[in-house]
Amino acid sequence: MTETRQLTARDIGYALCHSCHLLNPYTDRPLPKGYKLICCRCGAPLKFRKTRSVGRTWALLVASMILLAPANYYTVMTVVELGYAQPDTIISGTLRLYHSGFVLIAVLIFIASVLVPFFKITGLMYLLYSVQRGKVRRVAHRILVYRIVRVIGRWSMLDMFVMSILLAMVQFGKLANVEPGPAATYFTLVVVLTMFAAETFDPRLMWMEQPERGVENE
User: Which of 27, 88, 93, 124 has the fewest CB atoms within 10 Å distance of its CB?
Assistant: First the structure.
């Protein structure tokens, strides 16, 4: 039995804008020098696939994994109370809040600081692995993983928001002084890199048997 091939937008001369997601007319014919196809709504360059999606996403993920080590090792904040300094990492600070009775805040910081980066990195690595191996089975499952990664990425900075509220509360009480540590910078960089990684990954590669080498390496 012959397998029926589904008609795509590329087959009828259209391409989706990666910025505003508008479907635009597209042609594969060479353009005169100095000319390029752009979206008629936002003006972004038109391409069928994101440029070097797999390689760029891997680079951003590796950089985020490298920065994740100092983000969890170094001090994220130091509380100075009555002349006594108490430095805390993300984990020790979470435990201190938990034992101090701030259970909900401790849970929120643990989820946003530990679980969210872990799931984002491992989820994107799984998607990249499936694309590079040319796996086209269980595409719906991988699409669900990709959507979860995109959704949880919006809550990556939740712990920094909660921490800023705690800093304001402590400073307002004038009983202690809180100084941010270097881990806060590293963790912010991890969040930014994982957000960029999710944006550079092209989800349409997941249902292709083999990536289009000419388009992928533009």
Answer: 27
HEC states along the chain? CCCCCCCCCCCCCEEECCCCCCEEECCCCCCCCCCCCECCCCCCECCCCCCCHHHHHHHHHHHHHHHHHHHHHCCCEEEEECCEEEEECHHHHHHHHHHCCCHHHHHHHHHHHHHHHHHHHHHHHHHHHHHHCCCCCCHHHHHHHHHHHHHHHHHCCHHHHHHHHHHHHHHHHCCEEEEECHHHHHHHHHHHHHHHHHHHCCHHHHHCCCCCHHHHCC
Amino acid in position 7: L
CA–CA gap between residue 213 and residue 48 (Å, rounded): 12
pLDDT tens readout for residues 151-176? 877 666 665 666 666 666 555 455 55
Same domain, yes or no: 155 and 180: yes
Judge if 18 and 64 occupy the same domain: no
- pTM check: above 0.85: no
152 in the same domain as 204: yes
Within this chain, do residues 83 and 115 fall inside the same structural domain, yes or no? yes
